[in-house]
Write a structure and sequence with these properties.
Blueprint lengths: L4 E5 L5 H5 L4 E3 L11 E4 L5 E4 L8 E5 L5 E6 L14 E10 L2 E9 L8 E7 L7 E8 H4 L8 E5 L2 E6 L5 E6 L15 E4 L4 E8 L2 E8 L11 E7 L20 E4 L5 E5 L5 E2 L5 E9 L7 E10 L5 E2 L8 E3 L17 E6 L2 E16 L4 E14 L4 E7 L4 E7 L1
Antiparallel strand pairs: 1-29, 2-24, 3-4, 4-5, 5-6, 7-8, 8-9, 9-10, 11-12, 12-13, 13-14, 15-16, 16-17, 17-18, 19-21, 20-21, 21-22, 22-23, 25-26, 26-27, 26-28, 28-29
Amino acid sequence: MNKFLIYTVLCFISCTSVLSQGRGYTNPVIAKSTPDPTIIKAQDGSFYLYATEDIRNAPIYKSDDLVNWTFQGTVFTNSTRPTFEPNGGIWAPDINYIDGQYVMYYSMSVWGGEQTCGIGIATARNPFNNFRDRGKLFRSNEIGVQNSIDPCYIEDDGKHYLFWGSFRGIYCVELTSDGLELKNPDNPGKIQVAGTAFEATYIHKRGDYYYLFASIGSCCNGLNSTYRLVVGRSQSILGPYVNKAGNSMMSNNYTPVVNNSTRFKGTGHCSEIVQDDRGNDWILYHGWDAENEKNGRTVLLSQVKWDSNDWPYVDGGVPAINSTKPYFNPTSVNNVSDNSNTILFGKNNTVFFDSLESASVNIFRMDGSIVKGFRNTSKFEVNLDSGVYIVRVDSPTDTFLRKIIF
């Protein structure tokens, strides 16, 4: 007699990368203008990338391997986009999962509007649509920091911090536990942690150190852009941050990470670091492609390695044109997620699905081959041979995977 076991899992990849686990990739991984990328591994197990709005209302891309990306839509619509900076653009978002919801910090600015630009917040229950704008967190003339753009959120030791700044100093302030407000709005207590050479901060914790990744130079002059990714580190999240030689980032010292190459120019504004299932670290950033300058700031991928003194670098110091791709195990298990309106069960080697909402359903064998697919259905029934299967359900309100063993 076959025994039936069903349990809800989230896999680290979705169907497309289950079907294909090639060994290599070619930069750029997004060959369209997608500046200032930020990335999150969402609760559905896939990666979502967001960027400055060269696509109006800020683009969203989805991937299961950091290499193959599909456009999902935009964070906002014309009717839901922020308005606190009239005629402002949505720049340099930073995506996070805080207190049970997706929280995006974004910059809103016009060129030259260094006193009126600011940082706002939007939230959503899922990573791919229906972000609700919650308005500004602060503007430059309110927080007392000129050119207040390029946010970066990080939690550390029970505290919640926002770093930000662009060529007028890098600053940090503490937020409330839900990340939605300044902890002390009447006296924010901002702290400067780096000098005026930097923008596009990302803080990464590794071992005993906090690494402050930032960008220097010009971002937006096509193949004449001098943008580069640099780093310093500290044993305290609030600094002092220093370069390899021990010189302070407050005095504009740094250690290079990614420089310009013959092919790629203006290489900077990095995403969060992602670790694959073999323990390798990967980072995304933008750059101009000399072979396709008209495409704008495309998205590049590099493996981050660590030297004997635990300083980050990429091979050759420049973006690779071709390289070995990240590895993600198709059967790796992530956090549990479910949709309470969905019932999925098995009986006598038959899977039944009943939902209150229309959904798309795909059933895969563990080798990645598809068994059956259903589109825009509220119910399905399918007979399966004995074995192990992954069932993926995409409904209007949720995406989840279940492993079924017959």
